[in-house]
Amino acid sequence: MKTIHGKKGDVAGFSWLFLFWRFIITCFVAVAMVALVKMYIVAEINIQEIHAQLFINNIMNTKEGLSYYNPINDRVYPGTIAIDNFNDDLAVALDSNMDYHEQDIIAAELTLFTLDGKNLGTVVYNKEWYERWRVLADTSWSGKGGIKAFLENRTVLLIYPDRHNEPGILQFNIMIPNSY
Amino acid sequence: MNKIGDANVISLVIVIEVILIVLLASAFFYYYTDVKDNTIFAKSHAVRDIALLIETVEHVPGNIEVWYSEPEFDISQFTYTFDNNLVQIFDLDTATYSIYYPYALNTQLKENFEGYSFSKPEAFIISNVKETLSVREYGTIDWSKPVMLSCSGETSTKMTKGSFVVVADDSLKNLADYFIQYPRLGFNKRSSGADALSSTMDLAIVFSVGEHDSISIAVPHDMQSEKLGCLIGNSIVSAFPEADFEALDFSQEKMLKMNPHGLAVHITIGERLLYDTDTMAHAIATGMEAYYS
Questions:
Q1: Contact between A34 and B27 using a beta-carbon 8 Å cutoff
Q2: Most C-beta atoms within 10 A of its C-beta, which of A116, B20, B200, B228?
Q3: Which of A44, A97, A180 sits opposite B107 (nearest CB)?
Q4: Structure confidence at residue B51 (pLDDT)
């Protein structure tokens, strides 16, 4: 092997080293510029949170769904929940009122609490996928295969079977896949 | 390596850097033109917008019609299908690749909703009326500011509020009733029907039903009636921007000429504008008040 000795060798080694790093830095700056431009051009639209909010509002407003509905005057009372209707039949009604057919995009667990924190019951919309997605949501994977969970509490009015009413909390735990 | 060799290497590196810069500039330019010409963002936006609108409209507790267009881009450059709980948007020249987004269907509603396909629609009407959900294509939605007529600046001279007569088609009876009961006009005597027209009345308004979105206002050859008709027409156009109102017509109708010293206007209202008669009546009353104020 030929070894570089002396002044000339030092100069040549220094030049190559200098040029090598100069080239690396140039490449780094170029890549950084591309990355910055891509970062500031919005090419994807994420409406998961809006869709979750819309789901909550729709589920509160829909007729013969979660909120109390009086068929005599054909009126829905959004946010007023009859406790004796908060059961598995409600889950069936919700699945029917918001039917995505084969396009599973939302699943949700609805839990009703009194203001003291007493759990009055749970209803699951799209139960089959909720059970699957809940596990994935816990991984917090942000890629396309992941699930984003949205937790929201809404104040509601509870109507007990004896017709007395009191405020309560309805907790929504909504799962939406990142792939949409 | 000697000095000449070092210089050669430095020159070579500079050349490489110049090539890199040119490549980078080309890549940016290509990326810019690609993003500028690409419609994926517009399609993604529209598909989500429409899907969420359908879901919203479905769950409104009442009747609703949403006229959907998109001011940011031309929605008529795509083909849309609504099928199997999916809104899909295709480019016009291909039916194989689409951007899609799912929407929920409320199975309590009646749906005229399977297999819709719209090619180059100017706008949609998404409606939930009488528990029937539908998406219809609409020819065009004009977002431009309504065109107002330039009304005469002449001072109102026929200000006497003695007798006011309303004549209306049977289908516009509620409109006539509104004016008979409307207190703010301040007429001493208010009557309805063609029999009430006389040579002593101070104001005669005739209502009839026309076609589509048209507004036609006929007045006798009288500057004051012309001013009143113009003010009423502009007021209607303010409340109903879709109204097709271009000019006043001069008429020789007998009903309008019963009292040459009074005011007379014949308003023909297109059937499509009668979906909200309260607003129509209010708009006409506002035009009348503008004359008398």
A1: yes
A2: B228
A3: A97
A4: 92
ipTM of the complex: 0.79
Nearest CA in chain A to B40: A43
Q: Does A23 touch chain B (CB under 8 A)?
A: yes
Q: Are B97 and B91 in contact (CB under 8 A)?
A: yes
Listed in sequence order, the residues at least 6 apart from A173 whose beta carbon sits closer than 8 Å to its beta carbon are: A108, A109, A110, A111, A149, A150, A151
Q: Are B137 and B126 in contact (CB under 8 A)?
A: no
Calculate how close chain A gets to B22, using CA atoms only, in Å: 11
**More confident site: B163 or A154:** A154
- Residue-wise pLDDT for A85-136, tens only, equals 898 888 888 888 888 888 889 999 999 999 999 999 999 999 999 999 999 9
- Residues of B near A (Cβ–Cβ under 8 Å) read 1-2, 5-6, 9-10, 13, 16-17, 20, 24, 27-28, 31, 35, 40-41, 44-45, 48, 52, 55-56, 58-61, 84-86, 101-108
The number of CA neighbours under 13 Å toward the Cβ of A20 is 6
